[in-house]
Amino acid sequence: MKKIDASTEEKIKNAARTVFYKKGFAATRTRDIAEEAGINLALLNYYFRSKAKLFEMIMIETMTGFFQNLMMVLNSKETTLDEKVEQVVERYIDLIIKEPEIPTFIISELRNNPDLLLQKIPLKEVIQTSEFLKQYQESVQKGEMSEPNPLHFLINILGLTVFPFIAKPMLLGSSQLNDKEFESLMLERKKKIPIWVKAMMVAE
User: Fold this and answer.
1) Cα separation of 118 and 96, whole Å?
2) pTM of structure
3) DSSP code of 145?
4) Ramachandran assignment for 3, one of left (phi > 0), alpha (psi -120 to 50 degrees), beta (any other)
5) Which has the closest alpha carbon to 158: 197, 122, 195, 128?
6) Which residue segment(s) compose the domain that 28 sits in?
7) Per-residue pLDDT tens digits for 98-135
8) In angstroms, rounded to a whole number, what is the distance separating the alpha carbons of residues 45 and 34?
9) How many domains does the chain have?
10) Separation between Cα atoms, residue 204 and residue 197, nearest integer Å
């Protein structure tokens, strides 16, 4: 029996990540992944028996990494609510600049398999027991927040942070921005989004 080579396995996973991000599950062939990894199809099949299993692994790793940033920030007892907003925005903008295909990939595949995230990543439980929720409820009780539902708060943060990257082709097509200028615009939003979110949510 062939010995499992960790470096080859990682090479295949990296290639699969690249191809799945670009094409999604349905349009990807195992041959595409093998070509991206620079190996033959038989070797790919030896390491990963099916495209579905390889995809599930990549999908879970991607989602875990994406939402781990959120979970770490929400559960911190060392930061204020305002600092949490700043950290979420900064981490996600930096992450998506580095891996720009992630948001579209997650949205596209979640539409096809919405149960996968809920089964593998306990987002609901994390949010319900988080330090963020406790701090938000305290802010509402003190009259510092006008909106009692913390989901609106999270949606505003993630929407303002992530949506511009999803809409990048449209934004570039309707403006004079190039890729470098778009990145600079997103970096500017690190400071602006926390200000906008606070302005939307403070007591009237």
Assistant:
1) 22
2) 0.81
3) B
4) beta
5) 197
6) 1-49
7) 999 888 888 887 777 777 666 766 667 778 888 999 99
8) 9
9) 2
10) 14
